[in-house]
Amino acid sequence: MSRRTIGFGVIGCGLMGKEFASAAARWLHLEGVDFEPRIVAVCDANPAATEWFRRQVPSVERTYDDYRELLADSGVDAVYCAVPHHLHAQIYVDIIEAGKHLLGEKPFGVDAEANARINAALEANPGVIVRCSSEFPFYPGAHQIAQWVQEGKFGRIIEAEAGFWHSSDLDPNKPINWKRRVATNGEYGCMGDLGMHVLHLPLRFGWKPSSVRALLSKIVPERPDGSGAMVPCETWDNAILACDVRTADQQFPLMLSTKRIAPGHANTWFIRIQGTALSAEFSTKNPKQVSSLPYAPGGQQAWHTVDAPYKSAYATITGGIFEFGFSDSILQMWAAFCDELANGADGMRQPFRCATPEEARGSHRVFTAALESERTGATVPIDWRE
Ligand SMILES: NC(=O)c1ccc[n+]([C@@H]2O[C@H](COP(=O)([O-])OP(=O)(O)OC[C@H]3O[C@@H](n4cnc5c(N)ncnc54)[C@H](O)[C@@H]3O)[C@@H](O)[C@H]2O)c1
Asked: Is the pLDDT of residue 16 over 90?
């Protein structure tokens, strides 16, 4: 099978930039794909970050410290951009206007206004394919639950819950970084950082919250700055959002939570759906397990927990008995993005696309309303009209 090679540039060579490099280096893990990313150019404001790529990624031919030079590089067809949130709007707009396809990181703009700037650039340049990074739905257990929703297996939805919980900020001695400052992470705090992950599947299912009541917490008021001083920790640590979902034929509560301080949770993403005909749960805490409770009137109510096979959206060399993990979800997400670039939305080898700019925009509507709810103490309606 001949393969289309897609020339990639990476802007932002930190934690997530390296994760992409790792996924691209492990492309042989995938079976039956006719596309492949090749990272040819990288850019970071910090020379040590690009140096890592020079040493570790043989395909990298050019390194830059100004992203505009990378955008002028004719070998770059598409860009992965993983920089702090306050830089998203300007850099994403410039990428789109340069005619490069983009996988951007969440939250896709530091606030609603920044997100609107990105969407305006996209409207003016409809030829570029732009998607937002969100890998957890690519876990086989999450994929299974998404399929059950699409097949209408849950009956009437009673309630749904999605969350993303971290625990490392429980340690008050953890030094501050850009994710704890409003100037770089934005006023959304933990919602901007973690919320797109939590909203991706609900929005994909068409579950648009019509209102939100938010409870936002700041738990650790200050942190060491790394040079002996204590500085204010400005962003929201935890958020609990009680949403009301109204679809054409259903109305139900959707609980969303994003937590930087959830004791005992390293990186727990989960979704739980209760319905009159089926209930189901998946959590990355037990990445192999999917629990479900099918119900028929008068029948037994018994949870079944099975080890979900390693059955990913894109086939791999890994046997079905082995565990699926974070790096696998990143690889699968990258396969979906490259598949869409190579074959178009209608020609993809499997139908689950990466999160769309429209879904990212939906997440901004929810976070913006949540901030208003926190300020006023009110339940805030969310307007989904254009
Ligand atoms: N999808 C996920 O699971 C996931 C996980 C973590 C972070 N993220 C997202 O990825 C993005 C980056 O987060 P990270 O954890 O990789 O951060 P990071 O701090 O590890 O890396 C950011 C990099 O951007 C570089 N940078 C800053 N300004 C720049 C500029 N003007 N030009 C070029 N490079 C610049 C920094 O030097 C740094 O190397 C954020 O949007 C974050 O929300 C996503």
From this structure: yes
